[in-house]
Amino acid sequence: MKITQQISQLNALSPLDGRYAAKGLVLRETLSEAAFMAHRVEVEIAWLIELSDAGLPELTPFSAEGRATLKNLVDTFSEDDAARIKEIEKTTNHDVKAVEYWLKEQVAGNAELAAAAEFIHFACTSEDINNTAHALMLTRARADFITPSLRQLYEQLRSLAHQFAEQPMLSRTHGQPASPTTLGKEFANVAARLNHAIAAIEAVQPLAKMNGATGNYNAHLAAYPEVDWTAFSAGVLSNLGLTQNPYSIQIEPHDWMAALFDAIARANTIILDLDRDIWGYISLGYFKQRLKEGEVGSSTMPHKVNPIDFENSEGNLGLANAMLRHLSEKLPISRWQRDLTDSTVLRNLGVALGYCAVAYDACLRGLGKLELNAAAIDEDIDNCWEVLAEPVQTVMRRYGLPQPYEQLKALTRGKGINREGLTEFITGLDLPSEPKARLLAMTPRSYIGLAAELARAI
Asked: According to the model, what pLDDT value does residue 304 have?
């Protein structure tokens, strides 16, 4: 088969640019190669405008028109502009230098700005621009995609917790019947975990540096020793919404990025855990899935309605976390004052978060298809009277009856018990009338503790 040069959904090497291309549209605007260039332009122009206001004798403050012209380069940056930068890069073989030359092209026809052209990228190393651009990209990706997507999942889980707050469900610990809960409480558990994970993601403070080739403002001080470059750099970053990291080598050490990626991976692990549990409950028949006209579940077995959304989510979360963990483990490591291994890895930010986008969408879609199969979930709990061995032996402990655990173990372990057998056992206990009546009235469905209240409270 001959493949054309033009990338399509059919010949793309990555499913993120093929099968799942529509899921990553929001990320392309923030994390694509063109977006990286746009953010570099934004950083270069912010630095240049601040330089013009720094009182340097060779650079007077730009006029309102000059500032507007520069800011317009950021506001109107397009794929055509990115393509021109790539064209320049063919000659420079250096991507940031290509951005600098493109900016000089853009101001060449403006006498005021052209006179200041050599202050574009003044005293900067490439990483001053790149690390700041990456900080902006990740900050915006977090605000525009990561947090809203996870919040949407949280709200869906919270809604399900409320909807099914009082639906009794047989628990399973080690896969074996255990003290009952409610279906809503199980959704509430996941919602609470996810809420904490979102807070951890939001708490990560993005850092950036603009301090030169090895982090010491060497070139800056060589040109203008009278300027407080540490304060100047902090001001530029603050105006971009970022916090200065005052200590770095040539690269910002990326520890904050590692913290962010680890926090996202933890949220992903919670969702993956949910995917597997829902998959299991569908297998038990607790849930049915809303059918979609025309879909098939098997090429040979017409009856099947597979939990494909949760399987899709689980698989893509695995890919996302593999990428995120590599990023968090690799990025803080650099040989001496600089090597380029971080640069090539950082070009995959969109890949790591792209798999998150696919996974979050699939999980939400799956949750939206769930329909409770009340008959199956009720039958399961109604036929498991042995779970009441726990409250019976606990009440026996309170009133000092001999060997309560051992008696219930002999009565129920590995063989179960029915209502009649348990009633006979309770009736024969030397207990006060009130606790005995309470135990006799108890059913597996009613033995749910505070599960309903906890579910409603999330």
From this structure: 38
